[in-house]
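Two folds, back to back.
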Amino acid sequence: MPLEYEEADAFSGHIGRTDADSIPAYPSPLRSPDGAPNVVFVVLDDVGYAQLGCYGSDIATPAMDALAANGLRYRNFYTTAMCSPTRASLLTGCNHHTTAMGGIADQGTGYPGYNAQITKRTGFLSEILRDEGYATFALGKWHLAPREETSLGSPRRRWPLGRGFERFYGFMGAETNQYAPDLVHDNHFVEPPASDVDGYHLTEDLANRAIEWINDIHNAEPDRPFFAYFCPGAMHVPHHVSQEWVAPYRGQFDDGWDVWRKRTHARQIEMGVVPADAVLTPRPAWIEAWSEIPDERRRLYARGMEVYAGFLTHTDHQIGRIVDHLRKLGELDNTIFVVISDNGASPEGGPHGSFNSNLYYNGEPETFEVSEPYLQAWGDPSTYPAYTFGWAHAGNTPFQRWKRETHEGGIADPLIIHYPNGIEAKGAVREQYAHVIDLMPTVMDLIGIERPATIDGVTQVDIAGKSLMATLDDGGAAEVRTRQYYEMLGSRGLYDSGWKAVTWHPFIGQNPDVTVNSMRGFDEDPWELYHVAEDFSESNNVAEDYPEKLQHMIELWWAEAGKYNALPLHSMRAINADRPRLSAPRDRHTYLPGGSVTSSMVVDVRNRSHKIIADLTIPTGGAEGVLVAHGGRFGGYALYIQDRRLHYHYNLHTLERTTVSSESAIPEGDVTITMDFDTPGGGHAPAEVTLEIDGTVVGSGTVPKITLHTFTLMGDAFCLGHDDSTPVTDDYASPFHFTGQLHSVTLAARGEAFEISGQEWEASRRSE
């Protein structure tokens, strides 16, 4: 064996005058501890406490159930109530405000606990394990970089490869189209390897890639352990899955959410994932009783849940493929396999569900009449669906409320830990209180490593997480976590030695009884008190019985909030807030051919007059393709050439579509094309569209109603010379690359930049 020396030490060989009288030595490679286990984190999205089979559901999740049967389930495990904050806490062991991720990455505000700019002072588990000799890779959802840092021209320091992961394949934002994702491979965008026509689905692609990368390590460095961070977009909106996975659930939810909650609660008690005396909390009045819903609406609502169930079973199957592959390699028993959800089930589908979730963010009423025509198509590529919030509430059985809130329905989540080589207990349910920040120190404890004082030369802050090691093999071990604070969008909570104080702060869009007029100050929020050691589901508010206890816990909350940067309280956090950028916002910019650009980095033409000016060369024989597109199948606009004519298509979230076309053909040679969009703006105003070729008007038309807020959600970015992900119009199939030469595209906006108040947004949603 060659001589080795540590990189920081002196050369341990000998250097003579020639090789003949010298002794070589090499810097030691990074080696992990002997027999170090692999680590797999599976982070599900928007899965409620009651939606996995091993937590009482009747949805088939055999792969995760098997991990639970051969490992542990925790029934008092908690997260932050939202995705980015939970993921930041999971990877750092720090409370979410400490990481600056007090809300989702897209909604950073100008306060240290909320700016969404995670610093190196809160090191990631991936960075620690990388430096311990692990191979590290992330797959699926990232959502840990501010939106303005997610374009191809953006800095990469908060991308996965900037935070300790050696490989990445997934998407940067909160959600993506499962059939046509906005994919990133390492540090660059790529097109999906297939389309929905070919049967493509993102979760399958992610599982394929995970297996491939595990094989790469096995083939090259079989003794090297790995850390796999596997985060499918499931079960976040859109609920996308092929009908073969939905078919087994046909009719299964026809009895409705009230009956489903009762049956699920009974199974939970039988399994021991809730105590025998846990009370099923009542359905709130603003969720309809299933028995009072007309049959035609019941069918639509049940269909939404059937698709959700099929999507979850499909996701479980992909997780099972990874598990089976590790078993075949003989690696499963020496793998710390952790499965969590990032928050409770999500109410984003509203009272009726939605065939297109983009409607909600644009003030478009999501009525039964709008969604009903899509009943049979629900879940296929023509939809971007979400189920009703009645099913979200049921998914959090036996708790109150849901995602984004600090009652149990928002923060209580499944936790499965499977590690046969390190945990003797099999199939047990642990009662000890645990928080997502506790998982990183637990994993390090299991591996037998310590958190370094510095990472990449940066001194680390103290973590708040505590190892759960003592509870893994001892169900009677004392709780290691006796206090934990919560804050999300102004809702607050505090757990302290078996008691919980909690208050809900309303904001528009959560449920039908919240309007602008019902908003209130934080000092007006009523606090509730629960003795959760005896009242598992927060069913009995004892605030009036123990006023001094409640006041003490409120004061403790303020102390914890100050300690961990949770102040100031603020609930409305705009996605498109005016945040610092490397380049100042502008009303006019000339774009050159290249990759897509994140929406927030583009000249803001939403709800205001503007021009698109394209300089191009048409070759002999003509050309076709997209010149510029922003958005996709579920909302946006595109300027394109087809059949030698210029076309502008405006897609109002699939509800209304308008195409304005040129009357004359586009000539060959150098051409300047102009689209003028003239609107008074403000609300869903109309617009007059004029098309010009080399200064001559060749077409005009009216867009009767324009987008209120956003063309697109997370995917379908601003594109030059093509239309990524999904097409804005069915007149072409993406990417429909332009076959001529596109020199530049100029966006020139006029008038005030778009702004919308909560009152305007609410008025729009309730006006139809």
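---
second:
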Amino acid sequence: MKKIALRSLLTLYLLHITYYIFSQTVYEHTTSTAIYHFLDEMANEKLILLNTAVKPYSRILIAEKLKELTTKNEKLNKRQQADLKFYLREFYIELQSDSIANLQAQPLKPFRQKNNHTLSLLPPVYAFSSKQFSLNFRPIGGGTGYANSSGNIYNSYFGGNIYLYGFKNIGIYANYRDAYQAKEVLALPTYLTQSQGANYKFNEGKRTGGDYSEMRGGITYTYKWFNIGIVKDHIQWGNNYNGSNIFSGRTPSFAMLKMQVKPTKWFELNYFHGWLISQEIDSARTYYPGSGVPRTVYRDKYIAANFITIGPIKGVALSLGNSIIYSDVNVQPAYFIPFLFYKSVDHTLNNNIDNQNSQVFFDLSIRSIKHLHVYSSIFIDEFSFTRIKDKDRRNFYSIKAGFKVNNFPLKNIAYFFEFTESTPLTFTHRVPSLTYQSNRFNMGHYLGDNAREFAAGISYKPIRALIFNFAYSLALKGKENPYAFIPGGTPVDEYPFLDTISWQNQTIALTASWEFAYNCRINLGFSNSNITAKNTNNQTSDYYLARYSPAFLTGRKNTISLGLNFGF
């Protein structure tokens, strides 16, 4: 009886909270992989409509999709019902008051509650609410250890995540982490891995390895079908299950003005204008103060991008967009117009002089058949119709295609296959301050140009908290080509595609993950990888191995990993 009374009082308390919560935008980071996978599965089962080409999702969007699923509970199997109940508990604040009474889950179980303050242990959360605003704070921390024949290394992090809803339309969020990679760093700008990029300080405090801190966050305003905000965060565009080739979200976070417009179910506009980090020294602005130590200044670098998604047929979503990277000029107001074709704008602004760096991209997602998701995305860096007719010339593009099947023919099993190919000089540019990079990390596919990848995987989730994954990937990297117009040399659009393989990575991985509380996980993994290189293009195999791979993983390795994480 006491438990029932406590739950009833807490539910009434939350009804009081949510009466004051309206449409507000706070983003749930893509590292919260479990909720993203669940919503993707629900979309593949044709139970919800979801634009999976644009991430991260807002917490209110996730809550709306969960609320929609509560009306279709009878169509879910036992494990999916348990997932839904679990995630409803996490997103109870974002849910509207008129539906909370119908939810199949109770909110966070409080460890201690007094007045407007609530404390929970699993997950560790402190919450406060009033008529004016609602606040949620979570400490984050954890780490992962790796061991193979090269020895052992580990990473660790700690910090906090906070978000706040207030004044009906305002959302505020912040995430801070301080991280350490012991002995050897696994994510550098030239490494061909999907590890999150960061700016490391090496061998600080007499310990080997790298330290970094990352601060993300933003403030947003939402009104009905429109939201706008100033955020510093990661962004991912393009459907994928093994790394996007439009915006991968792998660079360190950067500041941006971000906007989303969704007046109907079948139309959505996403836009941002970002301030990238060029890490290219501006010698004209670098100076020597009285101390004698130079004050180094980087060149300014900006990006504007839009992505329009239309879905005139249920289950089919076509997205098209473009972006432009510009530098060596002031912030250009024309690039704040969210629906323009920026290459045409560039031709006006830079007539008869060297243009900026523009891109065009497309994404097609088809969920017309229950259980099946078929998708493809194309990134075009440089294009000419005359090259199509000439077999010796190439356009600069990256193409990705794949499919995923959930719960067919067996329940709780999913499998996917994905293919990616990027021609020479895609994602590159002859002007260093105009590259498709931030902090020197490529914003597109993690393999960069002149590369090909096959990836496949199968997962089994027998119960809510437990998931087993098997994955295979084969990544091929061709030789490096200079983006330079050399008299008598090979024209840049005639570089051969993968005529020689400079680097190769073939990996088989098995992982098990137990999410014992929201974003609190224990991970156990085993991988068999074989990373090799060849002498090509007047460079040795050792050069390519050192450039593209951490020494810890080079060669044939059997690696065991174990991780514990509280928040991301």
